[in-house]
Amino acid sequence: MGSDVERAGVLFSFLNLYKDFDITDYYLKAVGANFLMELPFTNEDPEVEKSLPPTLIQSVKNVFRGLRGFDQDAEKLAVFLDELNKSGIEFKNPDPDQLYTQSVECLNKCFQLFNLNQNEVAR
């Protein structure tokens, strides 16, 4: 699994790799996709950013500035983790019932794209 610093490094590398990735209708058609299923991993709350300590925000910026491909500055990552722990931030998980309902709706749309009856597929 690696240390906390190594895992944070993988996370930041992944975020950096896809930071400018934008899934547009044009992109979806270009790759032959007809449908995009979106499910949140955390509750998206625009107010959270306003409550973040400036030291945490600065540590995030410092980590991104220190990235060179998949090479990270372990010291900057450690500072970020320390600031994150000191902030006491807890991200709320989405409501499981809402995710289930949203997943079923998305799957039903997918079945319709293939002219499949979801009741027959579920058997």
Structural write-up:
The protein has 2 domains: 4-92, no CATH class; 95-123. It is built from 7 helices and no strands. It has helices at residues 4-17, 25-30, 46-51, 54-66, 74-87, 96-113, 118-121. It is extended, with a radius of gyration of 19 Å.
Average pLDDT for all residues: 82
Beta-strand residue fraction: under 5%
Number of domains: 2
- Major sheet attributes: none
Please identify the structural class as seen in this structure: mainly alpha
How many whole angstroms does the radius of gyration measure?
A: 19 Å
Record field, number of beta strands = 0
Query: Number of helical segments?
Result: 7
Contiguous low-pLDDT stretches (5 residues minimum) are none
Termini separation: 38 Å
- Please bin the fraction of helical residues: 55-70%
> Judging from the principal axes of the Cα atoms, what is the shape?
extended
The run of helices and strands is HHHHHHH
Topology overview:
Blueprint: H1 4-17, H2 25-30, H3 46-51, H4 54-66, H5 74-87, H6 96-113, H7 118-121
Short description, anyone?
By secondary structure, this protein is mostly helical. The protein is built from 7 helices and no strands.
